[in-house]
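Changelog entry: the TetR/AcrR family transcriptional regulator record was regenerated in this release. Current contents:
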Amino acid sequence: MTAQARTGDRKARERIVDAAQKLFAAHGYAATATAKVAAEAGVPTGSVFYYFPTKLDLLLTTVRERAYSGTLSVPAGATVGEVLAAAAAQLAGVFERHRDSQVIVFREAGTQPEVREVALRLIESSTGDVARHLGAAPDAPGKRACTTMARLLVSSLLLDNFFSRDATGPVATAEVLAGAR
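Regenerated structure tokens:
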């Protein structure tokens, strides 16, 4: 296969995932036919199944590939308050950029156990990342407190992005958690 063909394959696959994410978020997984996904992506219906053996595989891919990657950027020696502020700003940005994935997870996790499992792994990954940075802070509380603060921050940001989208929410959440130690 030539480099040009591989690039075309990647672009077609990306268009399929983009289309699925848009349609699953707007109409729900059950109400979205793969033919609609193909039409939205501008590919033949068979191409959807070339890249994704089942519709569920496509759904899980939209959740996995459009989520937090676990790469917080926090300066060395950052205090707990600084870690929380940095994590809140970065995660809020990620969650906002991938809001369609969040809509899909909230809608489908109750009926698709696989979606719930992927979502739980992603939430635990982001929580663990924040907790590790908190634990490295010079003024870090104990491990349990770091984990609890991280869990509260991540959960609060997810809910805030989904239900209110208040631009001051992430900052306020970080400030409250930093003061609650």
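The two ends are 57 Å apart (CA to CA).
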